[in-house]
Write a structure and sequence with these properties.
single chain; 516 residues; alpha/beta; 5-stranded mixed sheet; two-stranded antiparallel sheet; 46% helix
């Protein structure tokens, strides 16, 4: 029986009829609840499948990219090469290769010239001298693996027979006194571990292939002492970051080994990032803490006042308490992501319309990216404000038609709850629209966790945060992290503390070459 109205065809006792109606209504309610739960589970399952098997990009497109795009490209190249070999002309003739030489190689790379002159400079038919009319130039990119070599420092000692004294040049200052590691080797170890996420035991294996014995305990000691030497630079970056008026903040979980137990517990790497729309070179500072309490963010920021771009994590709420001077900026990427997951799960028309409306806001941002702050402010107020007003009205009206506790309702409720913070970016051209700047800085660390699995201790986590701050800031400023770090380790032992800012990996500081 589908509905109580079908009971009219039966002559039932009123009490029995009431009992049947109540049972049918209870059944319908249970079915409705199950439908909502199924919808939520389908959405969650689609999200997990996308995170595990699909592309991480959230670009809204009707045509989804092939999940096996790289494999298809490899197979296509193999088939093309096989076909070329099958159709190769007779021996001695060379067919032109399609697309060869179309990629321009970076000009800053060293060029090793190989001249291929003919065996004779006279004509093979008449014997006359050949005349150069042009040169055919092709280039190939090559690489030399890490090559170990030794710096031998010779310090002659001279004696004065008259004064009976001995003179010699002092031992060059080093980050680690008496160590066999040069600044270049320390740089190689640190870059491998913290930028390329290569654990120390793998670096030991690389060195062993060149018959260089580097005990893992020695490498660990070098990393620890290098981290101590560079810590003042990282702390100074934090001071400069807190001078900015607009910041991003985000956090990611990190497993930390529990001493003596063989188990891990969850810690967090907090990231604080300057705003790209603000003046000054970009800065990223990581802070390692053993928990996710909002107290950690409050301790790091201290007396800082300004606009803070964050997600809806409850730990930040006390920062926005009245009188603290910290103003909440909402992240449209987080709001959009909820509709994106909903659309991926069941092709929801409401989610698709929300994505189109949010996409229009981002289109305005793309047009204003090259503008100055004043022009960007005018653009947002003239074009973004009307779209935001219309979007809010649409959300309020549509929400009334959506069942509570459904995935659509949750996505809409999040946006409406965060509405004041989400729309605050349109007040000024220097406020960011989302928190992607911080998330992009955290992403390499998240990928690296698959290699190093866990932090060995709280001290190791803090050391990693200091080094990640320096290397991450170098990348943001267009510096070659390897060149910057090597140059800094060479200078740091004798560098005056009063000129510490000159060593920071910021644009216009130091002598490290930029990335071409």
């Amino acid at each position: 029986m589908k509905s109580p109205s079908e009971l009219n065809q039966f002559d039932l006792n009123p009490d029995v009829r009431a009992w049947v109606v109540a049972a049918l209504e209870e059944r319908d309610q249970q079915l409705h609840q199950k439908d909502q739960k199924i919808q939520l589970l389908v959405q969650e399952l689609a999200h997990l499948k996308r995170m595990k098997f699909g592309t991480r990009s959230e670009a809204y497109s009707q045509v989804q990219p092939d999940l096996f795009e790289e494999v298809v490209a490899e197979d296509q190249a193999e088939l093309t090469d096989a076909l070329e070999q099958e159709s190769q002309p007779a021996v001695g003739a060379q067919a032109p290769r399609q697309g060869a030489g179309r990629q321009t190689l970076p000009e800053h790379l060293e060029r090793i010239i190989h001249r291929h002159e003919p065996a004779s400079c006279t004509c093979g038919q008449c014997g006359q001298d050949l005349v150069l009319i042009r040169e055919d130039v092709t280039e190939q990119l090559d690489v030399v693996p890490a090559k170990f070599f030794v710096h031998r420092h010779v310090r002659p000692q001279y004696a004065c027979r008259h004064c009976e004294t001995v003179q010699a040049e002092p031992v060059p200052a080093a980050i680690i006194d008496g160590s066999m590691a040069s600044p270049g080797l320390l740089t190689w170890v640190v870059i491998n571990k913290f930028l390329d996420h290569l654990p120390l035991y793998r670096q030991v294996q690389i060195a062993a292939r060149q018959k260089v014995h580097l005990p893992i305990s020695t490498l660990a000691e070098w990393v620890g002492r290098t981290g101590v030497a560079l810590q003042p630079l990282s702390l100074r970056l934090g001071e400069l970051l807190r001078e900015r008026q607009i910041l991003h903040a985000d956090e990611t979980p990190v497993n930390q080994l529990a001493p003596g137990q063989g188990k891990t517990h969850r810690s967090y790497l907090w990231a604080y990032r300057s705003c790209d729309l603000d003046e000054g070179p970009p800065i990223i500072v990581f802070d390692y803490q053993t928990g996710r309490s909002g107290e950690h963010a409050r301790n790091f920021l201290g007396t800082w006042r300004g606009h803070l771009m964050v997600d809806d994590f409850a730990g930040y709420k006390k920062l926005f308490a009245e009188g603290r001077g910290v103003i909440d900026l909402g992240c449209w990427a987080h709001a959009r992501r909820k509709f994106f997951d909903l659309n991926e799960a069941n092709k929801s028309p409401i989610a698709a319309q929300a994505l189109e409306r949010i996409g229009a806001l981002y289109a305005i941002e793309r047009r204003g990216r090259a503008l100055g702050a004043a022009a960007r402010t005018a653009l947002r107020q003239e074009e973004a404000y009307p779209l935001l007003t219309d979007l809010h009205q649409w959300l309020v009206t549509t929400r009334k038609t959506v069942a509570d506790s459904s995935g659509t309702a949750r996505a809409m409720d999040y946006t409406l709850k965060r509405w004041p913070a989400l729309t605050r970016y349109a007040e000024s051209g220097i406020y960011p629209i989302d928190n992607n700047a911080a998330e992009n800085c955290i992403r390499p660390v998240v990928i690296g966790k698959k290699n190093w699995l866990y932090m060995g201790s709280e001290r190791a986590g803090r050391r990693a945060a200091h080094l990640q701050s320096l290397l991450g800031t170098a990348k943001l400023n267009g510096l070659d992290p390897h060149a910057w770090l090597k140059d800094t380790l060479e200078k740091l032992p004798t560098w005056p503390h009063s000129r510490l800012d000159e060593l920071l990996p910021l644009r216009g500081h130091g002598t490290a070459p930029s990335i071409s």
